[in-house]
Amino acid sequence: MLLLPLRFWPNRPRAYQLLELALIALVTIVVWGALASSSMPGQVPSQIMLFPMLLWAAYRGGLLGTSLISLLITIMLSLSGLHPRLAVLAGTGDFSIDVALSLMFVAAGQLVAILSDSQRRHERLAQEFRYRMESLVNHSPNMMSLKGLDGRYLLVNQSYANWVQALPEQILGQRADAFFSAEDAEKIRQQDAEVLRTLEARQFEECITLGGERRVTLVSKFPLFDADGRPAGVGSVDADISAIRQEKQAKREAEQRYRALVEQSLMGIYILQDERIVYANPKLASLLGYPQQDLQDISLETLLGGSEYQRMRHQIAHRFREQINIMHFATRARRQDGAMVDVEVHSRLFDYQGRPAIIGVVMDISERVSADANLRLAAKVFENSAEGILILDADTRIVAVNDAFHRITGYDEAHARGASRASSCSTMWPSTAICAMPWPCMATGRAK
After folding, report:
1. Which pLDDT score is estimated for 148?
2. Which 8-state DSSP code applies to residue 299?
3. β-strand partners of 332
4. Domain residue extents for the chain
5. Do the Cβ atoms of 360 and 339 come closer than 8 Å?
6. Fold for domain 141-245?
7. Residue 212: in which H helix or E strand, if any?
8. Count of Cβ atoms closer than 10 Å to residue 23 Cβ
9. Whether 276 contacts 296, CB under 8 Å
10. What is the pLDDT of residue 14?
């Protein structure tokens, strides 16, 4: 193959490659012209004299360069019969030998071209791989470094350079003690020594001072090996977890404050998920008569039971379906001894461990419910008593009267309210016996 059209040539050459091939062709013509103008008979075949041009084209132009220069040399050699002065370029004078030399040199040029193309292709692939790795390493948020057996840096990425506040080229060839305190550098050296001793990857947590600030890093170190499999150094991938550690500490402190508040609360607090209690504080356990650990994972049906449980199930399903975030309600809970207790619940929806749940506050309202029942009973007695009843304040002024008082005295509550003892005795019942006695909360009088 001496020539292939450029339009069908794979990896078509660039402009500068074509210019270089043109230069090689021009030099070849100049060499051929110099040989042709020489008065000395050719002692060396022309193929040998022009072979360096062929090698040059093979190395710089690949198969295309070899084909073009081979064609050019063939054309020039074929001109030897056109003029007597060009006979010196005919070669050895033996046609078979000239053909064999030409074919041998062309084949050698093609072989060199193939090897050169292969080498360039491998170099290009290696360079692309290097660029990709450098891009990956330099754009990684983690700090990466490679050190030799003597502890000197062989490679660092941009994140590592920013971390130690230096340029990458300033770090290469230096040891850790050039950028870290003596104590921190010694810890780094001991870690590297452990990795080289075990020849296994290790993970460490370091507290390092840089720029007067204490930083916490999670370090993954691994051994490096040479082409013969012998230890050659230590690689390191470091992640600065100072912010994560601070966030965890702040979260832990917040959880401790919240837990202390919840544990010491005077109201019961619970977390309900999947109709089961996943957390209950000591106050709620005391309210329901359970040990605190026994309330863990107890079902809602156990604490309510009967129709109240069914009502609460529908209410919870409705809340999650309609996303009713906050809800207040009253219900009756069953204690461990079977007794029922009236409670008031203030609750809201939230996510617990990544799943929907309900957190709520429970208050024992049994005394309030009982007091309300007593008040309703007293009100019934007050309204339905056959005797006239009046209620006085601390200044012995009337604040309320019942219907029987109105029926007996003729004064309804609107006329009697606010009346003092003196005015009442003079207008309502001037009887000496009544006004002379100590005023109780109930009195009788005469009709006006």
Report:
1. 93
2. B
3. 342
4. 6-134, 141-245, 265-368, 385-448
5. no
6. Beta-Lactamase (3.30.450)
7. none
8. 12
9. no
10. 66
